[in-house]
Structure formats: C-alpha cells, structure tokens
Amino acid sequence: xxxxxxxxxxxxxxxxxxxxxxxxxxxxxxxxxxxxxxxxxxxxxxxxxxxxxxxxxxxxxxxxxxxxxxxxxxxxxxxxxxxxxxxxxxxxxxxxxxxxxxxxxxxxx
Amino acid sequence: xxxxxxxxxxxxxxxxxxxxxxxxxxxxxxxxxxxxxxxxxxxxxxxxxxxxxxxxxxxxxxxxxxxxxxxxxxxxxxxxxxxxxxxxxxxxxxxxxxxxxxxxxxxxxxxxxxxxxx
Lengths: 109, 118
Hints:
The complex is a heterodimer of chains A (109) and B (118). Chain A is mainly β.
C-alpha cells in the first residue's frame, strides 16, 4: 500500500530552527508537496519538489531524496505564527495526491 | 475576492437527514476536488472533476454524490447522514494541463465546511 509517515507533533522555540521529516512509499512518484494548515483553516501550499536537492523559499526550505523516499521541511527563524500543522503529500504515478496525517508544530516563546 | 469559496462553513444536522455543501472557484481552474478531513487530520480525496467530468471516485459510499453544473462549481450532496460522516469537508481546485496532468499539483483549498451529525 501507499504510505506517508511524519511525526505527529514537534515543539520548538521562537527564533530557532526546526526540521520536519517525511518518509514515503508510493506507487510511482511525480513530486512531493508541503502544505501548512493553521487550526481551523484550509491547507495552503508551501513547496513542491520533484528533483533531488534543496529548494529554498525565504525562511522555509524543502529537501528531497527520491532514492531514500525522504523529504524534510526546514523552518528557520521560527515565529509564533509558524505554529500550525505541516502536511506532506506525494503525487503518485496516477497523479493522485497521497497525504500524510500532518505534523503539529508548537512554537514556544 | 475569495478564490475558492464553500458554503455553509458549519452544518449541524441529525442522522438520516440529507444535506448539501456548495463550492465555487473563480480561478478559472479546470479541476475541482472534494476532500474529507477527519478527526485524525488525514486528508482523503473523495471526488475530482475535470471540466465537468468525474475523473476520480474513491471508495466513498454512494450516499455521497457530487454535482458539477459547470467547471467553476462542484457541489456535494449527502443522503442519509451517518455519525461517521462528521468531519471537515474541503473543496479545492487546481490547474491541469489539457492531458489531465497537473502542472505542479498545487491545490487551492476552500475554508472548509465542518459537518457535525448528531
């Protein structure tokens, strides 16, 4: 079956750096996505990786290793507003998105 | 202007009732989706419509019926509601290529409709 694994919850301190990992096993691969979802709100797109390596976008970076079935989302200079769930999703060979359950990130002052 | 809007945002109803959730997108996208997010926060795709044609129909009960009058609207009708139907239902849209392959797969979500079945 298809599977996306990411930690359920992480805690970090304001101003620090946090890395949220995601491992996947899917039938085919057409890209990996990270979405941010604040409590009670809709998910919003953060990043898309289809080639190996690091994609940087401001304070957020996303890394992909297709051979390892692994990705991480790196958040720098954490702010209180970064408290949210971070969802990893993989597009399989049928171009369907397979979603992880999300990692709830708690930022403490 | 809200890009993807869905109504109602909150819906509380009794078991056995029939209810509908409406969704509209003004992004000019070709594909629209309905997702269900349960208490465990998994996002599960239910339906996808590309240019008014159903292209995904995951194993959801046939009590759920999507209706797409045009490519800017995708409504969800639910018959004989059950307790397990309680969840947040998200509508989303994306821009696909003419062959149905998404450009980046970026989805634009509506704000969600929280359905509570008592």
